Amino acid sequence: MKFDYNTQRRNLVLPEYGRHIQKMIQYVNSVQDREKRNEQVRAVVAVMGNLNPHLRDIVDFRHKLWDHVYLIADFDIDIDSPYPVPAPATFKEKPAAIPYPNTPVSSMHYGRNIENMLNVLADASDGPEKETMVAAMAHYMKKQYLTWNKDTVSDDIIFKDIDTLSKGRIHVNPALKLMNIQSSNNNHPHHHSQNNNNGKNKKHKKKKK
Length: 209
Prior knowledge:
Elements: H1 18-30, H2 34-51, H3 61-72, H4 88-92, H5 112-123, H6 128-148, H7 155-165, H8 189-208
Helix pairs in contact: 1-2, 2-3, 6-7
């Protein structure tokens, strides 16, 4: 008996399509009649689309499927594609590096996004709309502060942080009162377990009496 192992087979070019699709394309490439070959490859492309329905949300969905046919066939297939034949070099190009800011984050518990938003607010024109946005930002910063720090924080600390992060370009109205926020530290499971244990201990003491 002769066994067929994956280690003895050709490597899968695109694993998301599986080995059957790869074999189908190999078969299509072996068909001598050009019209029959084009008919068969269109059927294979339809199956590829059904196997990966999530690709339908991508722009040029069918174009990508035909490119994948060429890629699986190692660009050695003679078919009439409705799209230009892709160049092998396009699949070997490395994607452009994503620029990443080198400047360190001033306050880790606030994060870079808050710093960026404060910079945008600092450049905005003064007026009621800006005051409303600054107040909303202060409320949000207080919530973030209490997520990572101690149980309470005064409004003055938040206002000073806004002044520091904006490099003195934003001054919060000192009359502004931020909402009271309970720290997430108070909701730690350890507190609940202690309370439950205390309750159990009280019940046991009552039974002993």
